[in-house]
Amino acid sequence: MLLALKDWYASAPSAPGTRITQLGALGSFLTGSGPIAAVVTQLGGARMRPVRAIAFDKSPQSNWSLGWHQDRTINVAGRAEVEGYGPWTIKQGSPHVQPPFAVIAEMLTLRIHLDAVTPDNAPLQIALGSHRRGYIAESDVAAVVAESPQAACLAQPGDVWAYATPILHASQRSRSTARRRVLQVDFSSADLPVPLEWALRA
What we know:
CATH superfamily: q2cbj1_9rhob like domain
Strand content: 25-35%
CATH topology: Jelly Rolls
CATH class: Mainly Beta
Structural class: alpha+beta
Largest sheet: 5 strands, antiparallel
Order of helices and strands: HEHHEEEEEHEEHEEEE
Helix content: 10-25%
Number of strands: 12
Strand order of the largest sheet: 1-2-12-7-10
């Protein structure tokens, strides 16, 4: 799996976080009897399916930091005005919308590591237990982080981290010259209200 993912990355568009809307070759890992799908089924049930995928590639040429936050938007195929869904944003040309928080609360996020992640290589930082707080107002994020135990998601190539999507997380700029590629995939069992549809397709 790891070698195949590295081959996929070699032809993937280059950006700090490339949003993927077509599963393509990734489908064999993320759906059906694929190895990542098996992990998700064990954690969240058989109805879970991939609904958003982002390819991160942090390196000396493409380095960034991200402050503490909750993921609160979903990637959809097109904009449609539905009660409870909004506001809307566009990320890399793809529409994203903030759904009712219950949609985010039941989601799982998996991070599949292609490279080693060390303390110097911008590991994802998570505030343990913060996903149980529900929706956290921006003004309360710093206080929740300060009172929560924190962990750095160190990894070796091929490691997979799984966490509840609404957990507070952050990432610093890398202090290393090593490349850090991570495929991040959100999974959900929810069906969106018509006419909204998840953007990620087979």
